[in-house]
Amino acid sequence: MVVGVVKEIKNHEYRVGLTPAGVQAFSKAGHTVLVENLAGEGAGFTNEEYEAAGAKTVGEAAAVWGGADMIIKVKEPVEKEYTFLRRGLILYTYLHLAADKALTDALLQSGTNAVAYETITDDTGALPCLMPMSAIAGRISVQEGAKYIEKPYGGRGVLLGGVPGVGKAEVVVIGGGVVGTNAAKMAYGLGATVTVLDTSIARLSYLDDIFGGGITTLYSSRGNLEDCLVRADVLIGAVLLPGYSAPKLVGKDDIKKMKQGAVIVDVAVDQGGCIQTTHPTTHQDPIFLVDGVVHYCVANMPGAVPRTATIALGNATLAYGLKIANMGLEKALAEDPGLEKGLNTRDGKLTCPGVAQAFGYEYTPAGKAV
């Protein structure tokens, strides 16, 4: 199979779909790898490293898209890339289609076979290709919250951990999954007062155990959430329904009840956000204010740490990519039910129930989309 790696063109996206080590793995398996010129530059990987690993460097993105059987990316194609989509092409990347009708339509109209990292599951039902980026985003969320609560950015002007004689900031995390757990770790490590809300008692018990009672865990009822919102200095939205649009748990009227200069970091923005006032922002222009509350809603947060994020992503996605290349898409999906859940579109059919629900489109089970 011919595998293509293109340079990401989303705003301030510096990650790349394959590391040189990943290229070497595909090359050793007998596949041809085309890498766009300087595709890995933002993550610190040179053309020479890719060529030494067995790749062929190609000068134009169009040549990579056109010459590859499978494109391995990091982020979803942006509008400029829609013209490269075509029937028979395998696109292996993050997609988050439930928040992107235009891309969904482009994939369906082109007949592209799109496999989304974020809906692949393992034998336990976990999301192995989403997990490393969720961990990074969770950690970054607190770093950014700590930055934008500073007064020059419109924040309250408080230090998360306080100092002796001065109270700590309150960090509230909605969702106790991978994002929420990592956010809690960072906030707790910085000395903040941390509260995590979740609807899973088992998950709350786990968090209470690993933090040794050092954080507060609350069942995510409406009453508990409202109580937390008025106290929060930093609010982290860490809600995930794999493949589906994120539920809007915090409404416009809730924002008005929050402290002036509080910060919201909505990590769920890729799936539409769990805060009603959310809209996607970029690393170039990351924040906006609503009713005096700072909103940080960057849709590719791990792109800020591309070296770490690229290596971590490759560790998780390489094995599935090799399976597709070695076996062909149809056989790989048939043999791995978890990988099959990653299939979002195939030959013009929508194979992800969450996306179908988001847009009222017809859903076709992956096994019937051939």
Structure description:
- The chain is of the alpha/beta class and 370 residues long.
- It has two domains: 2-120 and 306-368, NAD(P)-binding Rossmann-like Domain (Rossmann fold), CATH 3.40.50.720; 134-304, NAD(P)-binding Rossmann-like Domain (Rossmann fold, 3-Layer(aba) Sandwich).
- Helices cover 35% and strands 16% of the residues.
- It contains 13 helices and 15 strands.
- The strands form two sheets. The protein has an eight-stranded mixed β-sheet with strand order 3-2-1-4-5-6-14-15, sandwiched between helices. The chain has a seven-stranded mixed β-sheet with strand order 9-8-7-10-11-13-12, sandwiched between helices.
- Helix 5 packs across helix 6.
- The longest helix is centred in the C-terminal third of the chain and has 22 residues, at 306-327.
- The chain is globular and about 65 Å long.
- The model has no long low-confidence stretch (mean pLDDT 97).
Structure summarized in a few sentences:
The protein has 370 residues and is an alpha/beta fold. Helix content is 35%, strand content 16%.
